[in-house]
Amino acid sequence: MNDFPADWLAAARVSKAWPFEEARKLIKRAEARGFDGEMLFETGYGPSGLPHIGTFGEVARTSMVRHAFRILTEDRVSTRLICFSDDMDGLRKIPDNIPDPERLRPYLGKPLSEVPDPFSDDHSSFGAGNNARLRTFLDQFGFEYEFMSATETYRSGRFDATLLTMLAAYDDVKAIILPTLGPERRATYSPFLPVCPRTGIVLQVPTIARDVDAGTITYVDPETSEEMTTKVTGGRVKCQWKADWALRWVALGVDYEMSGKDLIDSVTLSSKVCRALGGRPPDGFNYELFLDEAGQKISKSKGNGLTIEEWLTYASPESLSLFMFQKPRAAKRLYFDVIPRAADEYYQHLDAYRGQDAAARLTNPAWHIHSGNPPEESVPVPFSMLLNLASASNTEDADILWGFITRHRSELKREAEPALDRMVHYAVRYYHDFVKPMKRFRAPDDIERQALQALDETLASLPANADAQSIQAALYDVGRAFERYQTPPKQAGDRPGVALSWFATLYQLLLGQERGPRFGSFVSIYGIDETRTLIKKALDGALAQPPEAKSA
Question: CA–CA distance from 549 to each of 227, 354, 371, 391 (Å)?
Fold first, then answer.
């Protein structure tokens, strides 16, 4: 990145794109230590459930900040990104979305790295299985990262020095944590959770004695009532998670970690513990949470959000990265209905990029998604249009959709349009799973019948090769002729405008849905004759028949 153009670098230094704003905070951190050492970025992940898009989002967003930092420092500071899995955490409850949940009941309380994987016998544990699934997806996106397992890190001794520091600062750590707990937890709290040598369970028990010189704590086995003394090193204990977070920051030297808005208080608390251990808390920011279709927080154990695999079934990896880039501090619904818009917006940004100057390009999501090297590709037929073609023709066959495309866009050759071909296949899958089951036609009322008849006559008068703009103008003329669809003229002498309800009516009557892309563009690709056939079916009542009547 040392050859990054000077004018681009100047634009980056003042860019308001949020990755650059975050990177500028880290510039100050690097300056404070004379640009010595590396800048360590971290993302945390709890493998208590299948990896979900929120985890991917942290890695994607952190990678964008890391790239922006490298640009601003012109690669003078080395960087690393660690994806840390807390797979030594005890299995506190059985997830709702796993097969044969009773199989895991005997393993409650044991580290996730010691619990069988309920989804496959190919992995050594539940933690290892989920770690592998996450890494597969991250690798698919080409992220540059280092994976780190809590189990391996604790047991290897990498945390030992910091664990001994925490043992020495035991009273200070408790003084920070206790005021945030209720009376019962306060009476039993210890930052150390011993791993029972008899059962392998991560115990939540009070520490009744400690020996800083020997590096040990003493606790009472809750089943045998026997006093047990164990070292805090070598993976014999695990820290409570807020203390664990601080432990990790200090032991690894983490400089940057973002987290969800629900963890603001935890960040504050862990930062205090970090300082008590002699460390400096990382920089970062709190992003808003993703919500499911009902507006509820997404939970790994409930499985009430999209998985990465589900998104990639219906749209490109780049569209998912775009969703993560946009407005990270705004709460967003993360459900299937957001996919079509993200799919189209990605290519809109990619198309716009080619005509932008340096300053505009550095705020374009495509630049950040592709680490400064957006590809030279475009999709001339948007995802929303493909969905409507599938809906109008009631097809789940990519070849049929390509037939419509090439008949009216003869310059488009399937073998020369790989991005569009991928989009076609995404669209037919999405249509089958989400559009087709929700199609709801209704019969036209008297005014709508008149409007459809007028539209049919107007389309019949157009040349067979009429372009999208001509068709759209004709659609406006038809809608403008009916008082129901008129809007007041903008100024004296103008013709009335056309309400959006006119186009909504067309989609409801002809496609059985509430909205779609520009209708003139749809007709130009689907075909004037084919659209007239749809109109005839709507007028004859064939589209609005009950499903059983259609199938008969």
Answer: 75, 51, 54, 19
User: Measured between alpha carbons, how far is 341 from 329 in angstroms, rounded to an integer?
Assistant: 19
Length of the chain: 552
Helix (H) / strand (E) containing 260: strand 259-260
pLDDT by residue (tens digit) across 205-243? 999 999 999 999 999 999 999 999 999 999 999 999 899
Query: What is the rounded distance in angstroms from the CA atom of residue 69 to the CA atom of residue 76?
Result: 10
Outline where DSSP puts E strands in 192-245.
192-194, 209-211, 216-220, 227-231, 237-239
Q: What is the 3-state secondary structure (H, E, C) of 293-346?
A: CCCCECCCCCCCCCEHHHHHHHCCHHHHHHHHHCCCCCCEECCHHHHHHHHHHH
What residue segments make up the domains of the chain, in order of their start? 439-552
pLDDT at 6: 87
**Tokens 């006119």 sit at which residue?**
502
Could you name the CATH architecture of 439-552?
Answer: Orthogonal Bundle (1.10)
Share of the chain above pLDDT 90, in %: 76
The mean pLDDT value for 72-90 works out to 95
Pairing of strands 146-149, 192-194: unpaired
Encoded tokens for 204: 């939540």
d(CA 274, CA 269): 9
Q: Which tokens is 87 given?
A: 């797979």
Q: Which amino acid is at 192?
A: F
Give the distance between the most distant pair of CA atoms in the chain.
Answer: 94
Inter-residue contact 424 to 525 (CB < 8 Å): no
Q: For the packed helices 383-393 and 398-408, what is the interaxial angle rounded to 10 degrees?
A: 110
DSSP string, 263-285: GHHHHHHHHHHHHHTT--PPB--
For residues 338 and 53, the answer to whether their CB atoms sit within 8 Å is: no
For 87-119, what is each residue's pLDDT tens digit? 999 999 988 778 888 889 999 999 999 999 998
Measured CA to CA, the distance from residue 56 to residue 313 in angstroms comes to 16
Q: Is the pLDDT of residue 301 over 60?
A: no
> DSSP readout, 504-534?
HHHHHHHTSSS--S-HHHHHHHH-HHHHHHH
One-letter amino acid at 494 equals D
Count Cβ atoms below 10 Å from residue 359 Cβ, excluding itself.
16
The confidence score (pLDDT) of residue 299 equals 61
Determine the Cα–Cα distance for residues 395 and 387; give it in Å rounded to an integer: 10
- CA-CA distance, 407 to 387, in Å (whole number)? 17
